[in-house]
Amino acid sequence: MTLLLAADWKLLGVALVAAGFALRLPPLLVVLAAALATQFVAGQGVVAALEQLGGLFLDSRFTTLPIVLLLPLIGLLERRGLQERAAAAIRDMARATAGRILLAYQLLRSITSMFGLAIGGHAQMIRPLVAPMAESAAQARAGVALPRALVERLRAHAAASENFGNFFADDIVVAVGPVLLMQRAFRDGGVEVGAAALGWWGLPTAIAAWLLGAWRWRRLDRAIAAARAPTSGERAAAGSESAEHRR
Questions:
Q1: Would you say the pTM of this structure is higher than 0.85?
Q2: Residues in the chain with pLDDT values less than 50
Q3: What is the C-alpha separation between 126 and 84, in angstroms, rounded?
C-alpha cells in the first residue's frame, strides 16, 4: 500500500500542470511548481532541485539567453508605443484584414524558419507586433468594438500563425539543425536516409500547413465581417422592411 501510494504521488506534477492550465494560471509558474513538486515527491530537497534547474538552464543557455535578453528590449519598445504605432500603420492600409496579416506573417515565418533565421517568436513578434496589427485591422473592418470572445480568438490565431510557420517549415533546408537531427535519429535506428531526401519530403508538409492556415484565417475574416456594424444603407433598408412589416 505504501509503495502504491508513493507511486501515485509521483504523478502529482502532472496533476498540477492539468489543474493550473484548467484554471488559466501563468504557464511558467505552473510548470515550475509542478517540477518542484515532482522533485520533492521523489525525495530530493530544495538544493538538489535548484541544482538540476541550474544545470538545465546552462545546458540550454544558447537558446534561453536570447529570449531572456530580448524581453527587456520588447518591454521598453512596448512602453514607448510599439503596439500603438503598429496598429496605426495597419489602419492606414485599406485592404488589410486580420486574416491577410496572419497569412503573410505565417509565410514570412515559414521562409525564415526554413533557413534557420530566428526573427519570430511569441514574445518577440506576436505579442508586440502581429497581434496588435491583426486586432487593428479587425477593428477597422468591423467598425465597432469587437466582442471579447472574438478578440481572444484572434489572439489565439496570431499565436497559431507563429507555430504553423516555425514548426512545419524548419526541416526543409539540409543545412538547418532539425534535418540533421532526424538523419542522425534514423541512422541510430539502423535506417540510412539522405538529408536531402528528408528535406524534400518536408516541403509538402510546409505547403499543407500554409494552406490550412489560409483556410483558418479566411474563416476568421468571415467571423469578423459578421460582427461588423451595419452601414447607413443597410440600416435604412432594415428600417423600411420593419415599417412595411408593421403595416
A1: no
A2: 1-5, 234-235, 238, 243
A3: 14
- Angular region, 143: left φ>0, alpha ψ -120 to 50, beta rest: left
Interval 192-240: pLDDT, tens = 888 777 778 888 888 898 899 999 989 988 888 887 655 555 445 545 5
Label each residue of the chain as H, E or C: CHHHHHHHHCCHHHHHHHHHHHCCCCHHHHHHHHHHHHHHHCCCCHHHHHHHHHHHHHHCHHHHHHHHHHHHHHHHHHHCCHHHHHHHHHHCCCCCCHHHHHHHHHHHHHHHHHCCCCCCCHHHHHHHHHHHHHHHHHHHHHCCCCCHHHHHHHHHHHHHHHHHHHHCCCCCCCCCHHHHHHHHHHHHCCCCCCHHHHHHHHHHHHHHHHHHHHHHHHHHHHHHHHCCCCCHHHHHHHHHHHHHHHC
Q: Which cell numbers hold the place of 204?
A: 509538402
The answer to whether 179 and 171 have CB atoms below 8 angstroms apart is yes
Q: For the chain, which residues make up each domain, given as ranges?
A: 10-59, 85-228
- Please, are residues 52 and 31 in contact by the beta-carbon 8 Å criterion? no
Residue 173 contacts residue 118 (beta carbons within 8 Å): no
Residue type at 89 in one-letter notation: A
Provide the residue type at 56 as one letter: L
pLDDT at 205: 86
In angstroms, the CA 163 to CA 11 distance is 29
Identity at 179, one-letter amino acid code: V
